[in-house]
Amino acid sequence: MKKKTANDKSYHAKAKTLFMPQFRGEPCAVCGSTQGTVGHHIVSQARSKALKFDKRNIIVLCPSHHKFGMDMAPHSPSQVVVERFIDWFKENRPEQWQWTRDHEHDQRKYSYKQAVDNMKKGLEAWHV
Q1: Domain limits of the chain?
Q2: Where are the alpha helices (DSSP H) in 1-128?
Q3: Cystine design at 111: which of 6, 22, 40, 56 (Cβ 3.0–4.6 Å)?
Q4: In degrees rounded to 5, what are phi and psi of residue 119?
Q5: What's the CA gap between 63 and 34, in Å, rounded?
Q6: pTM recorded for the entire structure
Q7: Measuring CA to CA, which residue among 100, 92, 71, 95 is closest to residue 83?
Q8: Model confidence over 86-125: pLDDT tens digits?
Q9: What is the DSSP letter of 105?
């Protein structure tokens, strides 16, 4: 039997299982709705693996403000709607916006096993 490494796929799956559910049902940062809310990665997972499991890189959004709204939504097919969300975020969450800009190029310095262990301990972030 192969020994699991600290970055084994099973640890990655467990980290994902622990991380995202903690944002479900929290109020939308834009409108306050709790219906269908999810955590949205400000710096995408593709751009920064280091911020993938960092709560400071998350904003809670309802379905309308996440991808289906015509006013502002980061995953809208309309670039105008996406830009409205970015403008709203910069204006209403300036500290979080600046933090994500300052850390978007961080390199991951933890294993998925460490991520799981730290989430179980309730730590906010551990990538730095």
Answers
A1: 20-105
A2: 9-19, 63, 79-92, 94-103, 112-121
A3: 6
A4: -65, -40
A5: 10
A6: 0.80
A7: 71
A8: 999 999 999 999 999 998 888 877 788 888 888 887 766 5
A9: T
